[in-house]
Amino acid sequence: MRFNNLLVENYRNIKKASVRLSNSLNVFCGGNAQGKTNFLEAACLCCIGKSYRGAKDRELIGFDSEYARVYSACESRSGPREVCVFIPREGKKHIEVSGSSIAKMSELLGVIVCTIFSPDDLKLVKEGPSLRRRFMDIELCQLYPGYFSALVQYERALAQRNSLIRQCQDNPALFHSIDAWDEQLVKHGIKIVSFRTAYCEAVFEEAKSVHADISGGERLSCSYQPQTALLEGEKGFLRALNESRREDLSHGATCIGPHRDDFFVLLNDMDIRIFGSQGQQRTAALSLKVAQLHHATKVLGEPPVFLLDDVLSELDEKRQKSLAENFDGVQSFLTCASESTPSVLRKANPFAYRVQDGEFKEI
Fold first, then answer.
1. d(Cα 10, Cα 8) in Å, to the nearest integer?
2. What's CA 97's distance to the chain center, in Å?
3. Domains of the chain by range and CATH?
């Protein structure tokens, strides 16, 4: 998969940029707050239809602009496609694929797939579980339409159940109305757990091998561990939801379900969050992202686009080299602060742009 070019208009600080792209390594150099990360975010918008940084759509529109627009000409084994995402300040986001408006986000996912490696991912193994859920969800949604559908319906049911729980705090008569939403949570939640279980098993096995090569033999092991009730099937999940209602009422939210999922990372059989050095934690995060890239390539039959946002500065020369070895045959976008890129990247013959005040100039 690859982007042939990317046109970005009124997107954060990028007023207008038309960027042609190579099918290998593309490097974007510049200082902080110049537009490098915004460009990667715009590329990702064409893949998943929203900001991978969690921003709301209207936050993507440039100051004093009435809209933001991102257009890409891309291609994959299935042939050339065009994706256009238009975000007005007033009204709804509009997405077209090859000139046809899409009715559902599922029609966009999979047209062009990306794997993202950002500074937040370096915190993957040591901070809260929300980052680890995002690690699973962004890639699963792109690779498996059934997962995206289950996740959307689960989140809708969860929002309705949580709203009803808060109403029950003032009106206990509504208590039994929760039953209907429990059924929806169970129906879609079990599907989510099933997808995550299979995905994590494959990616974590790949990460073990990648990490051994990068670290020189340290043993990485990861395990996806949903709440016990979710492993007992629909009946176990439903029973747990019933048993936790009093706790849910006291918290004003649902305490059981895949929205509370996490996975654990061990290094040489010890919890890396507690016993791992900063360098070991970064190496583990790097291994997980590279494993994710390899898994997506196997599923798709071709590599996705690899987006790397300012991660070289956090890695030593050895880890940079290990990362660069995965650029072969993969279209990659790499942001960095300096035009004096490491020797390992110069050998990769990157196609480079200098980014300043939202403008892109070829180096």
1. 7
2. 21
3. 1-113+304-363 (3.40.50.300), 122-300 (1.20.1050.90)
**Can you read off the two tokens belonging to residue 314?**
């956090």
Query: Residue 291 has which token pair?
Result: 């494993």
Q: Check if the beta carbon of residue 67 is closer than 8 Å to that of residue 86.
A: yes
Q: What are phi and psi of 333, to 5 degrees?
A: -110, 125
Summarised one tens digit per residue, pLDDT across range 281-334 is: 988 998 999 999 999 999 999 999 999 998 877 777 777 777 787 788 899 999
Residues 23-47 have pLDDT tens digits of 999 999 999 999 999 999 999 999 9
**Sheet arrangement for strand 359-362:** 114-117, 305-309, 332-336, 25-29, 351-356, 359-362
Which residues, including other chains, have CB under 8 Å from residue 310's CB and lie 6 or more apart?
36, 37, 118, 119, 335, 336, 337
Would you state the structure tokens that stand for residue 151, as one six-digit string? Answer: 């996740």
- Calculate the alpha carbon distances from 7 to 20, 39, 262 in Å: 9, 10, 37
| Total residues found in the chain within this entry | 363
In the chain, which residue ranges form alpha helices assigned H by DSSP? 36-48, 129-143, 145-170, 178-215, 233-243, 245-251, 272-275, 278-300, 317-324, 343-347
